[in-house]
Design a protein that fits this description.
Strand content of chain A: 15-25%
Order of helices and strands of chain A: EEEHEEHEHHHHEHEHEEHHHEE
Helix content of chain A: 25-40%
CATH topology of chain C: MetI-like fold
Number of domains of chain C: 1
Largest interface: A-B, 54 and 48 residues
Strand order of the largest sheet of chain A: 6-7-8-3-9-10-12-11
Strand content of chain C: under 5%
Chains: A alpha/beta (331), B alpha/beta (325), C mainly alpha (296)
Distance between the termini of chain C: 53 Å
Largest sheet of chain A: 8 strands, mixed
Order of helices and strands of chain C: HHHHHHHHHHH
Structural class of chain A: alpha/beta
Largest sheet of chain C: none
Number of strands of chain C: 0
CATH class of chain C: Mainly Alpha
CATH superfamily of chain C: MetI-like
Oligomer: heterotrimer
Helix content of chain C: 55-70%
Radius of gyration of chain C: 24 Å
Shape of chain A: globular
Structural class of chain C: mainly alpha
CATH architecture of chain C: Orthogonal Bundle
Number of helices of chain A: 11
Number of helices of chain C: 11
Distance between the termini of chain A: 33 Å
């Protein structure tokens, strides 16, 4: 069926700080098939964005470095690839869409120019060809009258339009993998619905695999095939989107899903208090190296959680959890 | 909820003149009423004027026209010391806990500021009150000496809430109080807001773009679009039977876990973009994006009409029985 | 009144309060060049204050043969063209130079911050008028204006300081205005407004402390500029004839630079080192007060 596109094994990233070297990512392993959508969820500071940056070789240097593990894109290890090779990979094989569409577009060039520039950086094409390709892309991402819009500057477009342009830039080289880091967080809900829909349509059309980083449980549920939950720089649960929503095994996953109010259409809805995850994500500097990092906030905590750190264990087909005392019956 | 009206806004307009002579119609004829102990939600997307409405109610932006009655007094007529005295009845919880606390003041001083300004009680009594407020919002009184940068986002928001409660206000304006917080922290703050409302009989004017959060907190909800309220109703009326096409689109756009793997289906699609608030359309402001709009919708603006109970909607296509005609 | 049971974990100890000022001082201390600059400035100030009492040779008296090179007599730095002791000149001149530098910077900061604060806080017409005034001062030919002021009124220390202050406050005003406009929109200012804080409090107690970091950096650099400006005026002979200053030493000894280079190079080096030290301190302050700009 689908082929293995990306395979990340035991990825570790360390950062040099004033207090010495700290591990921001530990033992992150996951697989991604072509055409698949993987959702990465977790609170801020859990390592979601760092994972994405590692994939495209954009860990902030010189403070951060890959300390361990491999990033295999179709068999090629990007963790040890040269800067030159990574530049080829970026935009061509892997591209990225960021949260803030205002700051990720260059304000002094027209959007058409920015799309053609991306093409020219990777292919030997005439400017006439790249321009017509740029207009094609604008049409593809649903921008009305693309010939006119191509000549406009980012500030002349609305937030939703700008994000569409970003997606056009990301997809123009037909990457195998698109990484979207909170792509709709800065957008209004009706615009978000359109952008997500666009992602889905494009993904079906082009077969691009997507890594979608988000904190919105609803977005993950609607978009992702598989979900990876991260906490304190580690993967705590992976599984299908269905497992994630209906059968979460890790208390953190369970907490994430039940702490968000859900829209209910029932007129007699009287909300019960939301389930809280007490406390905050630990700062990685203060993280104790013994025991489960989530233990201090966990309602399922047992003695073992404080003494030994659980590792990711397969509990069912394509469903793995790192927990000593997982949720038995979730709902 | 009692019948006493805390806040009544009548035909409020807030217009901002631009340098080139044009005028932004940020809020254009908004009326609503808040009863004691109620949580009133104002929802809408960016540019709908919900935050401006809230700031006008706290007299932090200048109203162009209309009346705002706080406990029966039109605060737009007040000035100087009279207005200062009224301010203790309204307090605000801001969106961004990183911007709403003065980084150079200690947490205790921040919470105590309203008491100092209003000269409530003796200094020792104020100190006691601040310690009490810390406990009420789930912080420890020993943390008073710390500076804002020593707290997490959720704790900072708790400090902001403690400050808002200091003068025992009756009306608390919550301007997107959880949208800058992490999901797990949102639940803590929402539950806290609900507890406080119950314990102190607070009245909330709750601004949010998140329909699920508004449903969780609020009793009555008004949906705003381009400076106007287009639908208003109790929680069960609005979510159980949304009438306005825009409300429907808004509700259906919320991604939900029930819609597993179906991002491309099940959402009402809106055409185009909201028109500019500088020259809003003459007729129904939503008509250009509405799939039910007739030519007549573009000619005359619909009025907010009562359907049943609290439920009111501004749409030509909805008849008095709440049916689409 | 009912209390709400709190879910927070009480076993975590409360950390020491760390004020933003203390944080900045920690960062500043880690900046070695800035600390060296600060030490040098401290040394200069100390010598200027107590030096004249310990080394009582008058800088105006002829004490030895003119043009004595350093090390050739009991006056270790030698003498100038009038046989005046150069060391005494540096010690006494430092006093004047530093005083003028600090006073002029203080005047510039006071005017600049006040004008900028009102312009930035009130905006609108107030801003328009104040900014036109600022522009007027900005387009004045600095040196010429200062010379005219000093010549019209007598060239006393205070007049010189005022002249320098008046021509150098405009940058401060523009920066203050910008910072005020930024901080004015912060939610904590809105929060103060919403509880009825008065404008005077908002300007001086809420906005100014938060607008201060970049202003402090510029104020530090203004001291260096004022020292250079004073040296320039003295060099042109526009200094108090009764006092010695570093700039005046250079000016006096200028005609004899070929025979007696140390008469010019010694005060010149001291001015250079002092201004460099001020810049280093300014740089350290910038890193300490605007930590986000670090690690670039």
């Amino acid at each position: 069926m689908s082929t293995r596109l990306l395979s990340v094994r035991d990825l570790g990233i360390t950062f040099l700080t004033d207090d010495g070297e700290i591990e921001v990512l530990r033992d992150v392993s996951f697989e991604l098939n072509s055409g698949e959508v993987l959702g990465i969820v977790g609170e801020s500071g859990c390592g979601k964005s760092m994972t994405a940056l590692a994939l495209i070789g954009l860990i902030p240097k010189p403070f951060g470095r890959i300390s361990n593990g491999r990033i295999l894109l179709e068999g090629e290890d990007l963790a040890v690839a040269s800067e030159k090779r990574l530049r080829q990979v970026r935009g061509n094989d892997i591209s990225m869409v960021f949260q803030e569409p205002m700051t990720s577009l260059n304000p002094v060039f027209t959007v058409g120019h920015q799309i053609s520039e991306t093409l020219r950086a990777h292919f030997d094409m005439s400017s006439r060809e790249t321009w017509s390709r740029a207009i094609e892309m604008l049409k593809l991402v649903g921008i009305p009258s693309p010939e006119k819009r191509a000549n406009e500057y980012p500030h002349q477009l609305s937030g939703g339009m700008r994000q569409r342009v970003m997606i056009a830039i990301a997809l123009v080289c037909e990457p195998k993998l698109l990484i979207a880091d909170e792509p709709t967080t800065a957008l209004d809900v009706t615009v978000q619905a359109e952008i997500l829909q666009l992602f889905r349509e494009l993904q079906e059309k082009t077969g691009t695999a997507i890594i979608l980083i988000t904190h919105d449980i609803g977005v993950v549920a609607e978009m992702a095939d598989r979900v990876m939950v991260m906490y304190a720089g580690k993967v705590v649960e992976t599984g299908t989107a269905r497992d994630f929503v209906y059968d979460p095994m890790h208390p953190y996953t369970h907490g994430l899903i039940s702490c968000v109010p859900k829209l209910v259409h029932n007129p007699s809805y009287d909300p019960a208090p939301l389930l809280e995850i007490p406390g905050v994500v630990p700062s990685l500097r203060e993280l104790k190296r013994t025991g489960c990092p989530f233990a201090p906030r966990c309602k399922n905590e047992i003695d073992k959680c404080r003494s030994a750190e659980p590792s990711l264990a397969e509990i069912a087909d394509d469903h793995a959890v790192a927990c000593w005392n997982r949720m038995e019956t979730a709902w | 909820m009692s019948d006493e009206t805390i806040l009544e806004v009548k035909d409020l307009k807030v217009h901002f003149p631009l340098r080139n002579g044009a005028v932004v119609h940020a809020v254009d004829g908004v009326s609503f009423e808040l009863k004691n102990g109620m949580a009133f939600g104002l929802v809408g997307e960016s540019g709908s004027g919900k935050s401006t409405t809230a700031l006008a109610c706290a007299r932090l932006v200048k109203a162009t026209a209309g009346e705002i009655f706080l406990k029966g007094t039109n605060i737009l007529d007040l000035d100087g010391e009279d207005m200062r005295q009224m301010r203790r009845f309204t307090q605000i919880i801001f969106q961004d806990p990183y911007a709403s606390l003065n980084p150079r003041e200690r947490a205790g001083a921040i919470v105590g500021r309203p008491l100092d300004l209003m000269r409530v009680g003796k200094p020792q009594e104020r100190r006691k009150r601040v310690a009490e407020l810390f406990e009420i919002v789930g912080l420890r009184p020993e943390q008073q000496e710390l500076f804002p940068h020593q707290f997490s986002g959720g704790q900072r928001q708790r400090i902001g809430i403690a400050r808002a409660l200091a003068t025992q206000p009756e009306l608390v304006i919550c301007d997107e109080p959880v949208s800058a917080l992490d999901v797990a922290i949102q639940a803590q703050i929402l539950n806290l807001l609900n507890r406080l409302k119950k314990d102190f009989g607070l009245t909330y004017l709750f601004i949010s773009h998140d329909l699920a959060i508004v449903q969780y907190i609020c009793d009555v909800i008004a949906v705003m679009y381009l400076g106007q309220i287009i639908e208003i109703g109790t929680k069960s009326e609005l979510y159980g039977n949304p009438l306005h096409p825009y409300t429907n689109a808004l509700i259906s756009a919320v991604p939900s876990v029930e819609n597993l793997g179906k991002a491309d289906k099940g959402h009402v699609r809106l055409r185009g973009e909201p028109p500019s608030p500088i020259s809003p359309p003459v007729g129904c402001r939503f008509a250009g994006r509405c799939s039910f709009a007739l030519d007549s919708c573009k000619k005359s603006a619909p009025r907010l009409t009562r359907i049943k109970g609290e439920h009111m909607v501004a749409c030509h296509r909805i008849n008095s029985d709440g049916k689409l005609v | 009144m009912t209390y709400i049971s709190q879910p927070s974990a009480p076993e975590v100890p409360v950390p020491e309060p760390v004020s933003p000022a203390r944080q900045a001082w920690r960062m500043f201390r880690a900046h070695h060049a800035a600390m060296a600059g600060l030490a040098f400035l401290g040394f200069i100030c100390l010598v200027s204050i107590v030096g004249p009492y310990l080394y009582t040779v008058s800088p105006r008296d002829m004490v030895w043969a003119p043009f004595t090179p350093p090390g050739a007599s009991q006056y270790i730095l030698g003498t100038d063209y009038l046989g005046r002791d150069l060391l005494a000149g540096l010690i006494n001149g430092g006093r004047i130079t530093i005083t003028v530098g600090l006073t002029a910077a203080l005047i510039a900061v006071t005017i600049g911050v006040t004008v900028g604060a009102f312009a930035g806080f009130f905006g609108g017409q107030v801003d328009n008028i104040l900014m036109r005034i600022t522009e007027f001062f900005q387009v004045l030919p600095y040196l010429l204006f200062a010379m005219v002021v000093v010549m019209l009124f007598s060239p006393t220390i205070i007049n010189i300081s005022i002249a320098i202050g008046i021509v150098s406050w405009t940058d401060m005003a523009r920066l203050t205005r910008g910072e005020f406009m930024r901080v004015r929109e912060m939610d904590y200012v809105k929060a103060e407004r919403s509880i009825g804080a008065r404008n005077a409090w908002l300007i001086w107690a809420v906005i100014l402390p938060n607008a201060a970091p970049p202003l402090i950096v510029v104020a530090a650099l203004a001291i260096g500029n004022a020292i250079l400006f004073e040296a320039g005026l003295s060099f042109l002979g526009l200094s108090d004839p009764n006092t010695m200053s570093w700039g005046r030493m250079i000016g006096d000894n200028r005609p004899f630079i070929l025979d007696n280079s140390w008469g010019v190079t010694l005060p010149g080096t001291i001015i250079f080192l002092t201004v460099l030290a001020v810049s280093l301190v300014g740089d350290g302050l910038n890193d300490a007060l605007n930590p986000k700009l670090r690690h670039r």
